[in-house]
Model the fold of this input.
Amino acid sequence: MNCEKTETGVKVFPVKDLDLAQTLDCGQSFRWVQLESGGFKGVAYGKCVIMRLEGETLYIENATVEDFENIWKNYLDLSLDYGKIREKISKIHPVLKEAAKYAPGIRILRQEPYEALCTFVISQNNNIKRIKGIVQRLCESFGEEIADGEFSFPTAEKMASLTADDLAPLRAGFRNRYLIDAAQKVASGEVNLDKCKTAPYEEARQELMKITGVGVKVADCTLLFGMHRIEAFPIDVWMKRAMDKLFPGMCAEDFGEYAGIAQQYIFHYSRMHPELFE
DNA sequence: ACCCAGGAAATTC
DNA sequence: GAATTTCATGGG
Done:
């Protein structure tokens, strides 16, 4: 895979097994918006870029070759061979094979751990459209303006200096105090996010669950999308329906070391086929 | 008016 | 301890 400078950003070729809509707008990150041009604009790691894919050429506007190597290559998980993984997990179950074939361009993003934690705390008993609005207001209110009208995700330290009432304008409701608790425990070191990247899975889960407002599902999503623990298998309402109907008798462990990737294929497939569950 | 939303805490049985 | 209710907010 080669990355070279263009007039306004970088150009990367070849990029396989990537579909930007399937990856950036499928409920793992809540900060990307699709422009009329078709490109996706978003902020991660304090940088704002616009991505677009033409065949197997990925263009990232407002990025340098250095940023690509240090941030975006990692963010999009481009070092992992998803084609090979898809082939492997397709042998587990015919419906999984079908789901993987349906959206082969899904990748698991490597988001910032604290951002993943907060956005999935916000996600509970909520819908994706509203989650995006709350996250947007959170960044505009308490993040740093890194470009004209573009804001980074606020730090745990910044949020730890606030009270739940300060978050009222976000309209996140009962989740406000959960966010403050998360910020305080991360900022103080009571919850160690770095440890969650390498600790045994159940231990990492318990570490996150020290936070009020973090249960098994939010912990699993944080581990999958913020710490790249691809063995995680978050079960939300869609996944529960899918497991009951499409994979009766199976559990997370049956999906193996790439369970998280399988989960994303199944989640997306299920959301695109609601009629399966009527 | 009623139900649901990538759930979890608080309360009740 | 397991099952049920409540928690803000917005959209359909």
Remarks:
- Strands of chain A lie at 2-5, 9-13, 33-34, 40-44, 47-54, 57-61, 145-147, 150-151.
